[in-house]
Amino acid sequence: MKKILQEKKIIVTRSENQSNEFCSKLSNLGATVINIPLIEIRSIINKEIVSTYKNISNYEWIIFTSTNSIEIFFKTFTEHNFDIKELENIKFAVVGNKTKNKLLEYGFQNSICPDKFTADFLLKEFISQNITQKRILIPTSNIAKKNLYEGLTKLGNNVTFLPIYENIKPNISISELDIVNADYITFTSPSTVENFHTIYNSKIVNSKIICIGTVTANKVKELFNITPLIPNEFTIDGMIDLITNNEKSTL
């Protein structure tokens, strides 16, 4: 029996440590998957991070906007022998089910998770609940936008924007021929779009572009002047559903 994505070539551009599940699900649907990790995640450690973790009980909220931020936060926190019990009285906010589930793996539940999985909708939750005059920590990447930080600060909160990992463009050795002949190219962050543009420039003209959300889609529009497809749910599964539904509509 022919699978829905059989004979379809799909490019996955997310970091190597995060791409396995995505690639596996696409392969199980019959796709030929080309994994081109256009971003590499590296943790940061410096005096500011160590000092912040040492005084973590001063914070009332911690906000995680990615699974990367959770994994790196807890890894560094425990490797430097800080007491995990210091986190018990802190409330957590997350963006999306993947981030929520990753937090649960470390034994903590979120108090806020917006219906739509973006930082802007997370900020709207804080506004609607009139959360103000709180000490809030946002552990994030070195290139993360500060919209959430600025919005929470305007609400009257004392917010710490703390880069704990950096996004690096890795060396890529995938041929341009694979790019040109792809049926779909998937992007899961603005960084992957930017790095793709730097390496391959305009080689996406023959492919359908799938972006995990509006922020990533806007970067595609900006750099390539192409309007990509966006799933209803800003997750990997949402992207897969979008691809399969698109293929069904052409049958």
What would you note in describing this structure?
With 251 residues, the protein is of the alpha/beta class. It has two domains: 9-39 and 171-249, Rossmann fold; 42-167, Rossmann fold. 39% of the residues lie in helices and 18% in strands. It has helices at residues 20-28, 47-54, 67-79, 97-105, 119-128, 147-154, 176-180, 190-200, 214-224, 236-249, and strands spanning 9-12, 32-35, 40-43, 61-64, 91-94, 135-141, 158-168, 184-187, 208-211. The strands form two sheets. The protein has a five-stranded mixed sheet. The mean pLDDT is 88.
Brief summary of the model shown:
The protein is of the alpha/beta class and 251 residues long. 39% of the residues lie in helices and 18% in strands.
Descriptive labels:
single chain, alpha/beta, Rossmann fold, 2 domains, 5-stranded mixed sheet, 4-stranded parallel sheet, 18% strand
